[in-house]
């Protein structure tokens, strides 16, 4: 699915509020059968991340593993692809996870 299709349904994306994050934290996500830790982490993130999210939300969504400033410094050449919505850089879940998979070391 393309980024534009996600943005057309922007109103359906749940807000990143404390109750939403608490529900996501309490979800039971099964481990990947026969997979390694990297696959399991990516599978859990695929279930937990909203379809689109702003750059400033990444540290909160990933538990501080990546800073928003780091993503800004990487830009489009070395970082995940994004679009601008007003002053915010917005990432699509699948393209962000594809980029993140290249950054996770086994």
Provide an overview of this structure.
- This protein is mainly alpha-helical.
- The longest helix is centred in the middle third of the chain and has 12 residues, at 37-48.
- A three-stranded antiparallel beta sheet has the order 1-3-2.
- It is globular, with a radius of gyration of 14 Å.
- The protein has helices spanning 3-8, 18-26, 37-48, 58-61, 68-78, 93-103; strands at 52-54, 83-85, 88-92.
- The protein has a domain at 46-106.
- The chain is 50% helix and 10% strand.
- Residues 9-13 have low confidence and may be disordered.
- It has six helices and three strands.
- A hairpin with a 2-residue loop joins strand 2 and strand 3 (88-92).
- Helix 3 (37-48) packs antiparallel against helix 6.
Annotation keywords:
106 residues, mainly alpha, 10% strand
């Amino acid at each position: 699915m393309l980024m534009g299709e996600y943005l057309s349904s922007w109103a359906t994306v749940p807000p990143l509020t404390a109750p939403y994050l608490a529900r996501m934290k309490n979800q039971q996500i099964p481990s990947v059968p026969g997979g390694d830790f990297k696959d399991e982490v990516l599978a859990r993130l695929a279930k937990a991340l909203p379809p689109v999210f702003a750059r400033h939300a990444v540290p909160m969504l990933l538990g501080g593993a990546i800073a928003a400033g780091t993503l800004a410094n990487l830009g489009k050449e070395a970082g995940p692809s994004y679009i601008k919505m007003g002053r915010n850089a917005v990432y699509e879940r699948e393209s962000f996870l594809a980029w993140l998979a290249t950054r996770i070391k086994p």
